[in-house]
Amino acid sequence: MISPVLPRLLLFCQRFARWIFVPALAIVVWGELRPSQPEAGNWDKVLHFTAYFGLAAIATIALGRRRSGGWAALALALFGGALEIVQSFVGRDAEWGDEFANIAGASLGFLAGWASMREMQRLLGIFPRKGDQNEHDR
Question: Which of 20, 69, 105, 119 is deepest in the core (most CB within 10 A)?
């Protein structure tokens, strides 16, 4: 027996993700373009990874589809690269390591977001069995 709360929880999660994506993106852009702080060392890469992990997971949950979430993660990784280029014009250093952290974070964030959505759908019984055509993947 499926609790009547679960379908509403899935819908709430998707709506909440849609609401917080733009503010989260704005915070990441601000963080990447603000004046340089004292050297953060390798923590800088952790911050890049975490930011793009979160953005990709939020986007994937908001979109609710694997293919759309994958495209969103790719777009975020490319956006991160563009921000790295812009950093060189605002007095910050553009680094390949930062972009690699962005790509890794966006990739794993997409996977985490998709796994969360898939598990929620499985709990609701709306995820088809293996081998069935899945409309959510289109």
Answer: 105
